[in-house]
Design goal:
- With 211 residues, the chain is of the alpha/beta class.
- 36% of the residues lie in helices and 22% in strands.
- It has two domains: 3-109, Rossmann fold; 118-210, Winged helix-like DNA-binding domain superfamily/Winged helix DNA-binding domain (Arc Repressor Mutant, subunit A).
- The strands form three sheets. The chain has a five-stranded parallel β-sheet, sandwiched between helices. A four-stranded antiparallel β-sheet has the order 6-7-8-9, covered by helices on one side.
- Strand 6 and strand 7 form a beta hairpin.
- Helix 1 crosses helix 4 (98-109), helix 5 packs across helix 6 and helix 5 crosses helix 7 (178-192).
Length: 211
């Protein structure tokens, strides 16, 4: 059972997704880190909505103080706001399909991982504690950024299409969701830095390759 919390302002489509996921959801009157409900929840779900900057500030405070995974929903035109935002574990582009939302939520809640440490040049990923280090400096990655990087590092040389990455990394076949992969790749490249961004290569009309 997933214990989810969310702001009181809530759309019907996400309520349907929560019902499909079998989540026990509690609305919050506020998103202050001191709220006791945040301490007991498995995940915080936030719609970026009509006050995106306010929501992002709230999410950042909660991630810093509570460490609660955050699933954010945002309109396509709001995606640029997420590029430098810390604290978002995963996001869904609206309008949200309830089935997709259910699968994202379960993927986020699942804690399975391989214990094999992955290395590529000066990049190290430790799946046991979900830590990533670049040149001995810790990297600030969201859950899905980490999962995508781990998959690419563990399956080098081969070219993976966007749909294959959605299926392998996100855990479902979501047709029409290629933009999600592109956004995560762009954010990973930015965090790897200019000198290492080329480690993730775009193969035109096909997809992405690591190494």
């Amino acid at each position: 059972m997933i214990a989810a919390v969310y702001p009181e302002e809530w759309s019907e489509e996400l309520a349907d997704g929560l019902a499909l996921a079998g989540a026990t959801a509690t609305p919050l009157a506020d998103l202050e880190p001191e709220n006791p409900s945040l301490q007991e929840a498995d995940v915080l779900i936030v719609e970026l909505g009509m006050q995106p900057m306010r929501r992002l500030r709230e999410v950042g405070r909660i991630a810093e103080v509570v460490g609660l995974p955050v699933l954010l929903t945002a309109a396509p035109e709001q995606m640029a706001l997420l590029e430098s935002t810390v604290g978002i574990t995963d996001f869904v582009i609206t309008p949200v399909e309830p089935v997709e939302f259910r699968l994202r939520l379960h993927r986020l809640h699942r804690s399975e991982s391989s214990d094999e440490i992955l290395r590529f040049k000066d990049l190290v990923l430790n799946p046991l504690n979900y830590q990533a280090a670049l040149a001995d400096e810790p990297m600030d990655l969201t859950f899905m950024e980490y999962e995508l990087l781990r998959f690419l590092m563990g399956n080098q040389v081969r070219v993976w299409s966007r749909q294959q990455l959605l299926s392998k990394v996100w855990g479902y076949d979501y047709y029409g969701g290629a933009r999600t992969v592109d956004v995560h790749v762009r954010r990973l490249r930015a965090k790897l830095g200019e000198e290492r961004a080329s480690w993730i290569t775009t193969v035109r009309s096909v997809g992405y390759r690591f190494g």
